[in-house]
Write a structure and sequence with these properties.
about 350 residues, alpha+beta, Uridine Diphospho-n-acetylenolpyruvylglucosamine Reductase, domain 2, Uridine Diphospho-n-acetylenolpyruvylglucosamine Reductase, domain 3, Uridine Diphospho-n-acetylenolpyruvylglucosamine Reductase, domain 1, 20 strands, about 25% helix
Length: about 350
């Protein structure tokens, strides 16, 4: 199908309730859906919305809307998978930024291309993945990332970003800070391996494999186990509004880690490779501080996973944010740990 170079339709005062997984009924001053870079460039060239900030929306799984959005909200639905390079050891797979992340994982697993199978069932789109450097079960997308292409909103030129230019950190990237609002990510490319390196050491993956009697797991086995674990721990946004993990897992220097380990010998912890820092699960702190299952009206903390804040029906973004701020204060007071939100607050 040829790419449209016609400017897309723009809607005014548009509800975003169906476009954020918290199910918050915030409204965008203007809203549009793009299926190609060409159509978005055509919209930019009209100059009609140049006086407004442009907010790019993928799957809406990592945002909390606390007010109406005075911007042009652009829903990125640039699709497609392309194999752009292949040799005996690996492939480079290109994905449109508007593809669902889990569809990309499924596509790779079906072709027995390894590298992102531990990231199965993470909500959101491919374009949002490098912005957050999403990760789970011992893997981050930077481990398989090759490069991406993004539209420079000032020059309207498409630029290529290599891994080093993306400045990946723990749930961090160039596009979340210095590059925020300056680029629209259009495609993302991943280098995937034909000879899998199986990663089972993080979380409950190995335990579940053992319970199933799987001794030589394939990447399909890993993907299925990760999906099973995630479904058992995290609520489905279609049933209860949420954005998955609301807070980052805190990483602290060794002297702080030693203080925590001495005071709480059973606390889970994960050494950071190549560093003396230690990562601790934010959910453990939140649960120990007594917040698991807390509810105030329709806003609350999930009963099975303290890291997940939820909207039981008609909560506002401000109500959910108020609980988040109380949790941060409580954890800081009890443990001396400052939690950071993983979710983007608008």
């Amino acid at each position: 199908m040829p790419k449209s170079n016609k400017a897309p339709q723009v809607f005014e005062n548009y509800s975003l309730k169906e476009y954020n997984t918290f199910g918050i009924d915030a409204r965008a001053q203007y809203f549009t859906i793009i299926s190609s870079l060409e159509s978005y460039v055509a919209l930019l060239k009209t100059g009609l919305y140049s006086h407004l900030p442009h907010l790019f929306l993928g799957g809406g799984s990592n945002i909390l809307c606390t007010k109406h959005i005075d911007a042009l909200v652009v829903k990125n639905e640039i699709k497609g998978f392309d194999l752009i390079q292949e040799d005996d050891e690996s492939v480079i797979l290109r994905s449109g930024a508007g593809e669902l992340w889990d569809d990309l994982v499924s596509y790779a697993v079906q072709h027995n291309w390894s590298g992102i199978e531990n990231l199965a069932l993470i909500p959101g789109t491919v374009g949002a993945a490098p912005m957050q450097n999403i990760g789970a079960y011992g893997v981050e997308i930077k481990d398989a990332f090759d490069h991406l292409e993004a539209l420079n909103l000032e020059t309207l030129a498409v630029e290529r970003f290599e891994k080093s230019q993306c400045q990946f950190g723990y749930r961090e990237s160039y596009f979340k800070h210095e590059g925020k609002g300056k680029y629209l990510i259009s495609t993302v490319c991943f280098k995937l391996n034909k000879k899998p390196t199986i990663q089972t050491s993080y979380g409950a993956i190995q335990t579940v494999l053992d319970s199933k009697g799987i001794t030589n797991p394939t990447i399909s086995d890993i993907s299925k186990v990760v999906i099973e674990i995630r479904k058992s721990k995290l609520p489905d946004p279609k049933e209860i509004g949420n954005s998955g993990s609301f807070f980052k897992n805190p990483t602290v220097p060794s002297h702080v880690a030693n203080r925590l380990l001495n005071a709480y010998p059973g606390i889970p912890n994960y050494p950071i490779s190549g560093s003396s820092d230690i990562k601790f699960p934010a959910g453990w702190f939140i649960e120990q501080a007594g917040w698991k299952g807390f509810r105030d009206g329709d806003a609350g903390v999930h009963v099975h996973q303290a890291l997940v804040l939820v909207n039981y029906g008609d909560a506002t973004g401000k109500e959910i944010l108020a609980i988040a701020e109380k949790i941060k204060a409580s954890v800081n007071e009890k443990f001396g740990i400052s939690l950071e939100t993983e979710v983007n607050i608008y």
